UniProtKB/TrEMBL annotation:
Pathway participation: Alkaloid degradation; nicotine degradation
Name used for this protein in its record: 2Fe-2S ferredoxin-type domain-containing protein
The 2Fe-2S ferredoxin-type domain, residue ranges: 11-87
Record Gene3D superfamilies: 3.10.20.30, [2Fe-2S]-binding domain (1.10.150.120)
Any Pfam family matching the protein: Fer2_2
Keywords: 2Fe-2S, Iron, Iron-sulfur, Metal-binding, Oxidoreductase
Chain segments carrying region Disordered: 187-207
PANTHER family in alphabetical order: OXIDOREDUCTASE WITH IRON-SULFUR SUBUNIT (PTHR44379:SF5)
The keyword Transferase is annotated on this UniProt entry: no
Matches recorded under InterPro entries: 2Fe-2S-bd, 2Fe-2S-bd_dom_sf, 2Fe-2S_ferredoxin-like_sf, 2Fe-2S_ferredoxin-type, 2Fe2S_fd_BS, Beta-grasp_dom_sf, Diverse_Oxidoreductases
Protein source organism: Capillimicrobium parvum
Gene Ontology molecular function: any one: metal ion binding
Length: 207
C-alpha cells in the first residue's frame, strides 16, 4: 500500500452511527455528508452551503459538533457519529431538545433544525444553565434564514430547563444506545440491508 489512491478506487471504512456499526466502501473524495445521506440513507442532515459556513450539515463526531460537508468520509473512519435520527429515545418519543423546539416553535422551514438541535445538545451538555446571551453566542455557528433566531433561543432555554429537570436523553448514554440499537433492529427488520454490512457506494454529488 503506497498511500496513493487511484482514480475510482474505493476505500473500506467503519463508522458507528447512532450506536450501530457500519462497514462501507467509499470513494476517498466522497464527503462525509454524502456518505451519511447517500450510503446510509440518513437524510436528516441537510446540505446548505457545502462550504462549512451555515451549519445545516452538523453532526456529532465523537461527541463534538462537526460540519459533515467539509470532511471526507474516510477521515471519519473509526468514529462514533450521532445524527438527528439518533437522538430520540424511542421511535415514538422526541429528545427533550426536539420537544422544546416543537413547543417553542423554534423552526419554520426546518432546514437548519437538525443542525441547530445537535448544536444545542452539545451546548447544553457543556453549559446546562446558559443565559440567553450564551445561547445566542452558542448557536451563532448555525445560520437560520427563517426564524429571526428569537424562537430558537426560547427553545434552547426551554430545553435547558427540561434537561435540568431530568428529561435526560443523552445520545451517548447506555440507555440511549440501547434504545438506538433496538430501533436499528426494527429498521433492519422492516428494511433489510439498511444496517450493518457493505453499503453499495454511489457517486458523490460533489466534485
Ligand atoms: S452545508 Fe455544511 S456548513 Fe453549510
Ligand atoms: S427554520 Fe428555515 S432555515 Fe431555520
Amino acid at each position: 500500500m503506497t498511500g496513493i489512491v487511484e482514480e475510482n478506487q474505493v476505500v473500506p471504512i467503519t463508522l458507528t452511527v447512532n450506536g450501530r456499526r457500519h462497514r462501507l466502501t467509499v470513494e476517498p473524495r466522497k464527503l462525509l455528508a454524502d456518505v451519511l445521506r447517500q450510503d446510509l440513507k440518513l437524510t436528516g442532515l441537510n446540505i446548505g452551503c457545502a462550504h462549512g459556513v451555515c451549519g445545516s450539515c452538523t453532526i456529532l463526531l465523537n461527541g463534538q459538533s462537526a460540519r459533515s460537508c467539509v470532511m471526507f468520509g474516510v477521515q471519519a473512519d473509526g468514529a462514533e457519529i450521532t445524527t438527528i435520527e439518533g437522538i430520540a429515545p424511542s421511535p415514538v418519543d422526541l429528545h427533550p431538545v426536539q420537544e422544546a423546539f416543537w413547543e417553542q416553535q423554534g423552526l419554520q422551514c426546518g432546514y437548519c433544525t437538525p443542525g441547530m438541535v445537535l448544536r444545542s445538545i452539545e451546548l447544553l451538555r457543556e453549559n446546562p444553565n446558559p443565559t440567553r446571551d450564551e445561547v445566542r453566542e452558542g448557536i451563532s455557528s448555525n445560520l437560520c434564514r427563517c426564524t429571526g433566531y428569537q424562537f430558537i433561543i426560547d427553545a434552547v432555554m426551554d430545553a435547558a430547563e427540561r434537561l435540568r429537570a431530568g428529561e435526560t436523553s443523552d445520545p451517548q448514554s447506555d440507555d440511549a444506545a440501547r434504545a438506538h440499537a433496538e430501533k436499528a433492529w426494527e429498521v433492519e427488520r422492516l428494511a433489510p440491508g439498511m444496517g450493518e454490512g457493505d453499503a453499495t457506494p454511489i457517486p458523490s454529488s460533489h466534485p
